[in-house]
Design a protein that fits this description.
The chain has 159 residues and is α+β, with helices and mostly antiparallel strands. It contains four helices and six strands, in the order E-H-H-E-E-H-E-E-H-E. It has one domain: Alpha-Beta Plaits, CATH 3.30.70. Strands 1, 2, 3, 4, 5 and 6 form a six-stranded mixed beta sheet that branches.
C-alpha cells in the first residue's frame, strides 16, 4: 500500500473527492503517429489542429450547451471524458461524443473508443477508474473501426 505520509511533504490538499460510480469514455485518435509527422512538417497544420482542439475543448467544457457536468482530459492521442452515472448525464455524454466525432471527422481526424460505467476516483493529478479500464478494453480489444462502443446493457448499472 502507498503510505499517506512522505517525509517533508504536508497534506494541504483539503477535502478529496470520493470514489463514485461514473460513465467513462476512452477515445483514441486513429493514425496519430502519421498525423503527428504531417503536422510537425507543416506549422500551418499544427495551428489548424490547435484550432480544432480548441473547438473540442469548447464542446467538452459545455460552451455549446451539451457538455455540462463532464470532466475531460486530453493527452497525446487520447481523450477521456467522464460524467455521473445517471440517465440524463449519460444522454449528455452520448450527445457530446457524437458532436466530437462529427467535429473531428470534418477535418479528417477519426476516433475509436469505448464507453463504460464503473467506480471512479479523479483529481487534477490522479485517476483510478474501473470505468476507464473497461472503456479502454472496449476500444483496444473489440472496436476495430472508427466508432464508439458502449458496454453491454447487462453491465450498465445506475447504482
Amino acid at each position: 500500500m502507498i503510505s499517506n505520509y512522505v517525509i517533508g511533504i504536508s497534506d494541504d490538499r483539503g477535502p478529496l473527492p470520493s470514489v463514485e460510480n461514473r460513465a467513462v469514455a476512452f477515445l483514441d485518435i486513429l493514425g496519430f503517429r502519421n498525423l503527428s509527422t504531417k503536422f510537425l512538417d507543416d506549422l500551418n497544420q499544427c495551428h489548424a489542429l490547435d484550432l480544432q482542439m480548441r473547438h473540442v475543448e469548447k464542446i467538452l467544457a459545455g460552451d455549446v450547451g451539451i457538455g455540462t457536468g463532464l470532466h475531460a482530459q486530453l493527452f497525446s492521442d487520447a481523450i477521456i471524458i467522464s460524467t455521473e452515472a445517471k440517465p440524463d448525464s449519460l444522454i449528455r455524454l452520448v450527445f457530446t461524443l457524437e458532436a466530437l466525432q462529427c467535429k473531428l471527422i470534418s477535418v479528417g481526424i477519426f476516433i475509436r473508443g469505448g464507453l463504460a460505467i464503473g467506480r471512479h476516483f479523479q483529481t487534477p493529478r490522479t485517476m483510478v477508474s474501473e470505468g476507464l479500464i473497461a472503456a479502454y478494453e472496449l476500444e483496444s480489444q473489440v472496436s476495430r473501426f472508427p466508432r464508439i462502443l458502449v458496454q453491454a446493457k447487462e453491465a450498465l448499472s445506475w447504482r
